[in-house]
């Protein structure tokens, strides 16, 4: 009689595989370094895709097995489609990951001066512990579009010669009444998330000109980028932790970096689709935006972009006139991995986990049958038949996997894009990596798990269900 036992994957890893793992993760760290925003991730993905033979969908009048096409939605979504041997209407294999991460967005009118310092106001994006963002170097990334339509890309703080920005925290000598009596989520309040962006006043001949530090900052911005204060209104600028992804631990078995939720799944799903031949069913790697704020908006999965690009694929490969029922049939016969991370068992706070059902670093891919919160609210709950078929695929390919849940019942919880995929009748389950310090400026992942994700996504794209 078989019993259930998950084990640490490193124990079964020989030197050759360990070398492959470390080499793979070097490229992964590079992807994290150049893709700190969703726009940057899209740019990086398209650069790699074109090197692997993918072309814009507009270049295809007809799609044949082996064709490689890509879609871009508002520079924040990218879809890679590798056309399979069977007709697209027979179903698609979707691997869907999100490329947005918690951060600080600049407000539309952010710049002001106080006490001869220039500051910028922000609004945090996604679920963060606000106090983690103070007194640390931050980089400014994003895009400014002027009234004339000129686009200016900005990335300040990543090069060693760049200045960085920071939120000034209160010293422990004076915080007894102002901060220590606050609850943890108010140690630093939302309106206190303001960065220092300048400190040097600029001399003006006109004595009526006030806020000379702010004026100095605006002058610098105009000299370097030809943008002025009103251009912040049509900008998408965000603060992210400055610095590069690093190995963690004397054994160098983990990657520590900002944004691994969920770029760990984005990168591995990209590499997986690059490394497969013509599959039986069409394979789609879909990188989405806005997951951290509920998948809303035109670039979130709550939009109908999945229907749009799937329809575009169908009309390029059918012998009969396209109709809505073909699209519905295709989606209903499709399978998806909602590729998102899970909470790894934290040795310092084990009490919030159900250890028997918690995922661990180094144990491979995490299959999460359902997420949500108390009572499974707002979750997709995968069918038993689908879970069984994935078990078979991963076991047949000797892929290390485990199960996981997001903490104890009623402890908290969270959701993913899975429910939006399931809305179309697509067989869907969450499948990703375990992380420590999720949603922090420095998340931790096992290198072994990163490599197993890549192997699992390859198998999903190509193996029979």
UniProtKB/TrEMBL annotation:
GO terms for molecular function: aminopeptidase activity; metallopeptidase activity; zinc ion binding. This is M18 family aminopeptidase. Keywords: Aminopeptidase, Hydrolase, Metal-binding, Metalloprotease, Protease, Zinc. GO terms for cellular component: cytoplasm. Its cofactor is Zn(2+). It comes from the Bacteria. Signal peptide: none annotated. NCBIfam families: PRK02256.1. Pfam families: Peptidase_M18. It comes from Photobacterium sanctipauli. Its EC number is 3.4.11.-. One of its GO terms (biological process) is proteolysis.
């Amino acid at each position: 009689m078989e019993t259930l036992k998950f084990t640490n994957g490193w124990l079964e890893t020989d030197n050759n595989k360990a070398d492959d793992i470390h080499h793979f993760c070097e490229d992964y760290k590079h992807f994290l370094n150049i893709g700190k925003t969703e726009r940057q991730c899209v740019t990086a993905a398209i650069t790699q895709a074109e090197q692997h033979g993918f072309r814009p969908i507009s270049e295809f009048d007809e799609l044949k097995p082996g064709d490689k096409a890509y879609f871009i939605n508002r520079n924040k979504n990218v879809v890679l489609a590798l056309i399979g041997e069977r007709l697209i209407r027979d179903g698609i294999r979707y691997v869907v990951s999100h490329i947005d991460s918690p951060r600080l967005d600049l407000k539309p009118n952010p710049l002001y001066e106080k006490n001869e310092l220039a500051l910028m106001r922000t609004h945090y994006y996604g679920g963060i512990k606000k106090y983690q963002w103070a007194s640390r170097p931050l980089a400014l990334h994003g895009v400014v579009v002027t009234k004339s339509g000129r686009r200016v890309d900005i990335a300040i703080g990543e090069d060693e010669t760049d200045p960085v920005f920071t939120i000034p925290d209160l010293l422990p000598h004076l915080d007894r009444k102002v901060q220590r009596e606050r609850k943890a989520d108010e140690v630093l309040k939302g309106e206190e998330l303001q960065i220092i962006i300048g400190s040097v006043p600029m001399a003006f001949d006109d004595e009526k000109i006030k806020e000379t530090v702010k004026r100095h900052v605006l002058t610098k911005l105009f000299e370097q980028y030809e943008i002025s204060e009103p251009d912040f209104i049509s900008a998408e600028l965000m603060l992210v932790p400055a610095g590069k992804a690093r190995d963690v631990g004397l054994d160098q078995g983990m990657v520590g970096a900002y944004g691994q939720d969920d770029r760990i799944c984005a990168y591995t799903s990209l590499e997986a689709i690059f490394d497969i031949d013509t599959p039986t069913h069409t394979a789609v790697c879909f990188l989405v935006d806005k997951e951290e704020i509920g998948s809303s908006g035109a670039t979130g999965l709550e939009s109908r972009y999945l229907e749009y690009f799937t329809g575009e694929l169908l009309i390029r490969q059918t012998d009969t006139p396209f109709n809505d029922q073909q699209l519905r049939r295709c989606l209903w016969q499709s399978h998806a991995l909602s590729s998102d991370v899970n909470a790894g068992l934290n040795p310092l706070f084990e009490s919030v986990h159900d250890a028997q059902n918690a995922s661990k670093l180094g144990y491979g891919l995490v299959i999460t049958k359902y997420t949500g919160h108390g009572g499974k609210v707002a979750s997709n709950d995968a069918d038993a038949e689908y879970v069984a078929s994935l078990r078979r695929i991963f076991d047949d390919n000797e892929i290390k996997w485990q199960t996981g849940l997001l903490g104890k019942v009623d402890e908290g919880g969270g959701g993913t894009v899975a429910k939006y995929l399931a809305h179309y009748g697509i067989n869907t389950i969450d499948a990703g990596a375990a992380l420590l310090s999720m949603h922090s400026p420095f998340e931790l992942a096992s290198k072994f798990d990163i490599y197993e994700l890549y192997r699992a996504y390859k198998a999903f794209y190509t193996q029979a269900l």
